[in-house]
Specification:
It is built from six helices and five strands; from the N terminus they run ββαααααβββα. With about 150 residues, it is mainly alpha-helical. It folds into two domains: about 5-100, no CATH class; about 105-148, no CATH class. Helix 2 crosses helix 3. It is globular. The two termini are about 15 Å apart.
Length: about 150
């Protein structure tokens, strides 16, 4: 999930209380741009100073959010692979999870909801999963095919 909707395939985000929207909900464009940049950087593509500014702006907004800890924990335990969650990029969340012994969850496709695995991971080692593609979607959904 790259944009900040109030629900996911699994239902409402548990850390959001009814009432005042969080900073990321008020600045959706900033977080969407930052998520795309994080994906492009992970693929080895270069980025401009505008890209760095978008990521830093998203992280700055996170640090003013009252649910930053719950958001970060949610992203780690649900295997969010893209975007800024809890004030951290995916690589920062992975490091944080290792340092604080937080179990990392299995990512799910944002479109069809199936559990995903890395394309090089053996299906036998990850039963019931489909291949992850990008932007939080499985290969089939990302390519515009019929949802799994």
């Amino acid at each position: 999930m790259t944009s900040r909707a109030t629900t996911t395939m699994a239902g409402p985000l548990p850390f959001l209380a009814a009432g005042e929207p969080t900073p990321c909900m008020r600045a959706v464009e900033t977080f969407d741009l930052a998520a795309q940049i994080v994906v492009d950087t992970a693929r080895g593509r270069g980025h401009s100073s505008d890209a760095v500014t978008a990521v830093n702006d998203a992280k700055r907004l996170c640090h003013a959010c009252p649910v930053i800890d719950a958001c970060r924990t949610y992203a780690i335990t649900n295997g969010e692979r893209t975007g800024i969650w809890g004030g951290m990029r995916p690589d920062e969340r992975a490091r944080f999870a290792r340092r604080h012994h937080i179990p990392v969850g299995t990512p799910h496709c944002a479109s069809c909801g199936h559990a995903t695995r890395h394309r090089n991971a053996k299906a036998a080692d990850h039963p019931g999963t489909v291949i992850y593609y990008s932007r939080g979607m499985c290969y089939s959904c990302a390519r515009g095919g019929a949802p799994c």
